[in-house]
Amino acid sequence: MADSPARAALPPLRRPRVGLALGGGSARGWSHIGVIRALAQEGIVPDLVCGTSIGALVGAACASGTLDKLEAWVSSLHWTDVVGYLDVGFAGGLIKGSRVMDFFQEHVVDCDFANLSIPFACLATALATGHEVWLREGSVSAAVRASISQPGLFEPVERNGRFLVDGSLVNPVPVSLARALGADLVIAVDLGSDLIRPDSRPPPLSTGASGNGSSRLGDFLHAIWGSGSRNNVPSILKVIAQSLSIMQVRIARSRLAGEPPDVLIAPQLGDLGLLDYHRAAEAIEEGRQATLLALPVIRRQLRNYS
């Protein structure tokens, strides 16, 4: 009897290279911390991290191993601390941003991209051309500062002869960047899924949902930038905030449709104001809960490689 033909050797199974794409969304971005914590509890540590805007800031802390420091800082913020970090200026933006970044550089991340424990990249937008700029070299804190430069709010950053602003203008959830860096499986976090409200109410700059501090912060901001005219015309800060929200949501929907992640996590953060950085506990918990809901999909995607 003839020997049975030998079966072709199957290639060894491999673990997928997991990429985490953290989207932009101002104070709502503290929810990224909850996402990362929930993934870690499941035993999922990303092989690479990408971020836009606030996602760049949290992503840099994750990639540098300083997420504990960042979480401790944001969890301790009071509304008066937030006010203290708002170094008002009018040269290209209402907020200079140097106080926040000085603290970030001193206490969280102060290193070169090459020295990070996890590969990391963030993105910004070239103000003159509108081109998407991927930042992967040099100072991490300088790159993050460029990525968070929301137009009208933060002063743009000059880098290599061009001015850079917030990456959310062109790519609010950087799935494409994660793919380009070699991710097989991309877990993306979209912070804007519920920012455009069906009842036409704009998202708040700061709400009173978490106590007197929030309303005081709102009062302070309106005292600086105005609360609108007698005809209920919104203030300049509300116009900027809502315009950025509309832009971010519309662009994110288009980009995610053309460049879908393998898993999309969408924390429900519509009640957090643009500058509610002192409400970290709520944002972190919502990020954790949204990730727990997504775990069945994540497990199924991982099984596809086993």
Task: Report what the structure shows.
There is one protein chain. This protein is an alpha/beta fold. The protein is built from 10 helices and 10 strands. Strands 1, 2, 4, 5, 7, 8, 9 and 10 form an 8-stranded mixed beta sheet that branches. Strand 7 (157-159) and strand 8 form a beta hairpin. The longest helix is centred in the last third of the chain and has 24 residues, at 280-303. Mean pLDDT is 81; it is low at 1-7, 207-212 and 224-228.
Would you list the SSEs in sequence order as H and E? EHEHHHEHEEHEEEHEHHEH
Overall structural class, as computed from helix and strand content, comes to alpha/beta
- Calculate Rg over CA atoms: 20 Å
The total beta strand count reads 10
Instruction: Tell me what portion of residues adopts beta-strand conformation.
Output: 5-15%
Q: Ends: how far apart?
A: 36 Å
Shape: globular
> Taking all residues together, what is the mean pLDDT?
81
- State the helical fraction: 40-55%
Main sheet: strands, sense, barrel: 8 strands, mixed
Helix count equals 10
The residue ranges in which pLDDT falls below 50 over 5 or more consecutive positions are 1-7, 207-212, 224-228
